[in-house]
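tool=predict chain=A
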Amino acid sequence: MNILFATGGTAGHINPALAVASYIRETNENARILFIGTADHMESRLVPAAGFDFKTIDISGFRRSFSPKAIVHNIKTVLRLMKSSGESKKIIRDFKPDVVVGFGGYVSGPVLQAAVKMGIPTCIHEQNAFPGITNNTVAKEVDRVMLTVEDAKKYLEAKNEPVVTGLPVRGELLRADRAMARAELGIADGKYLVLSFGGSLGAEPINEAMYDILLSSAKSGKYCHIHSVGTNGGKYLEKFAQQGFVNGKKGTVEVRQYIDNMDVCMAAADLVIGRAGASSLSEIEAMGKASILIPSPYVAENHQYHNAMALVNRNAGFIIEEKDLSSNSLGRKIDELLSDPKKLKQVETNARAMAVINARERIAQIILSLANNA
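tool=predict ok
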């Protein structure tokens, strides 16, 4: 059985595909798996590191601008698109896949379209509540469309009825124990823990809003707080050091550059604050955490806003848009939630109800059924 995955661009596309591919490899000895991506994005590093064969095509995305530089880029993109169709067909002919799977990113478009024309079974997975351009385009051609959340269905015109599979969540998060995690972090019984971050790189608007909140919390000690400034947030570590933080710690507050034990921190947390990427939200749901979501307005199709609203509309989370974000607005929301345990508990319950714990297995089952019926 030969399975071809096409995805790339961001970790939000690549990591779910790797999780599913790894599960298939573990449970099917006869499965041969190949990934197609680009040479200049993170899939070229992540896929081989996970032990999968990897081939590249030359493709780029369109820029939504009429600047001279953008126009030149888009002309080159059209030429690459024409070339990538032939490259995709050659890889497909050589590998002879029983099914072709797309996990988003513009690299998956020409691969899926070539597979459809060659009569090979195809499927896609959409991570976000508002579908990306590539998946929106190919949904009407592929055999199966899989979704993380039901909300995405209304934006897609699919050949067959889409199925909600959820999004794979890392096993260490699912196995994490709250009591053990709190003991490991030294969180006293009856003390709330707030966990906040802006992604691995960090988000300056979140760091700015958090600065006064963290200083106040370190002084009052009314709750514990772990905050990550991100790898680009080094200047904030210096600012906190100037305010008496020693090795990032002061009172009940800890400021880190990066959270490398997210399973422990999230398991111990009572409230999570961060962006609204699909993977983060799936983890929040799986662990049943109340959250204040601050969607990034800089992503394609503003999809993080739609991701966040999928929780908000089910009373499973809260949103503060970046344009409304300040230390005051965020601080008031934190205080409001931590002073209402009943409300906090209900939101946790609603978030957990949205979780699809066996997403990896569901997605794999659909892929294998298409391959077996090829």
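The chain has a mean pLDDT of 92. The chain has 15 helices and 14 strands.
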